[in-house]
Design brief:
Length: 218
Amino acid sequence: MKKYCYWCGSPVKDKYCENCGTDVDPPQDVYFLDEECGECNARLPRWAYYCTECGYKFTLYDPTDSGTKARYNKSLRSGLIFWSAIFILIAVIVPIASETIAFKHTLPVAAVLLIILWGITLTRTERGHFIDGTVTELFTRDEIHRERSLSETTITGRPVYYEVPVTVYCTRIRWDNGKEEVLEKDCNAADHIQLAVGDRMRYFTARRKYQKLMSGRI
Ligand SMILES: [Zn+2]
Ligand SMILES: [Zn+2]
């Protein structure tokens, strides 16, 4: 049994928080981002504000804070330098070590990879931007997906496909700039467990992450 509510931080004795009504022991669906406490080893539900085991209160990511911004961009730059060096090294070493692969093959590939890498880094650079919005609708859609069997083939060696019924969990958000977005998750009810119509959401542009807002907390 969990000790604290991950949403409001109150001590809990039951499956539901007495203070805010949150299901403090939700299905595994909401743990899919592999978030951990850091103070202890507890795995946390997505968007947790408090650790369910030690009660630690998390400082939320604030993209407008200059320290946060600098730290984030610094780690982004380190990654960029590391991977750039790896790509260049491979592009140089492979032709030297191999008799069949020449520089004219590896250098263009490395150049393309570097351009993609630098492009991604540019779009992921934290400039302090975020946008808030409101959840306006939760709905599901049933789809039939064609999935290829991993173990079976036909007698002539052709792939076998199965039709698999899939429930898509959709969450409509109207952002404060008037734009709408529908978040979709195949066979994963996480958003429907954690969100309700009227909830306020924040989208961090650089990190491409969502956070459910608690009024007065962010
Ligand atoms: Zn609570
Ligand atoms: Zn903890």
